[in-house]
Amino acid sequence: MNKKLPSLFQNKIDKKLNNNEVYYVSNKESIPKFSKNEIEKKINDIFSSSSYIYRVNTIITLKSGVIEKKIIGKNKNALITIDNELIPIDDIIDISLKKEVN
Fold first, then answer.
1. CB atoms within 10 A of CB 34
2. Residue 41 and residue 18: Cα distance in Å, rounded?
3. Strands 78-81 and 56-62: what pairing?
4. Nearest to residue 49, comparing CAs of 66, 76, 71?
5. What backbone torsions phi and psi does residue 44 show, to the nearest 5 degrees?
6. CB atoms closer than 10 angstroms to residue 69
7. How many alpha carbons lie under 13 Å from residue 102 in its C-beta half-sphere?
């Protein structure tokens, strides 16, 4: 069992290596990107639905994360929540209705 293994060939490295100097790693799911017009259309569809007039439960994907809010209105630049918060429409990546569980 004392067999000598053959030696390996190693090439000389006589220059500077810069492999993998710039790289990006992400473990997040890819988030669909919607244009401002598509976001506006989604918001208008939510409010134009006959069964949702006030207090619409929504899931909003922002640039900073995902939140669940009850939306009661909209002005030119923002959504208004039941807690009297303003969510800028420019910060919204996606918006959808929260499905009610009975």
1. 16
2. 47
3. unpaired
4. 71
5. -65, -35
6. 19
7. 0
Give this prediction's pTM. Answer: 0.62
Amino acid identity for residue 11 in this structure: N
Distance of CA 24 to the CA centre of its chain: 17
Q: What is the rounded average pLDDT for all residues in the chain?
A: 81
- Segment 20-60, tens digit of pLDDT: 666 666 665 655 667 888 888 988 888 877 565 678 889 99
65 φ, ψ (degrees, to nearest 5): 150, -170
Do 92 and 36 meet the contact criterion of CB atoms below 8 Å apart?
Answer: no
74's enclosing H/E stretch is strand 65-74
Domains of the chain by residue range? 36-97
> In CATH terms, is domain 36-97 a member of 2.40.128?
no
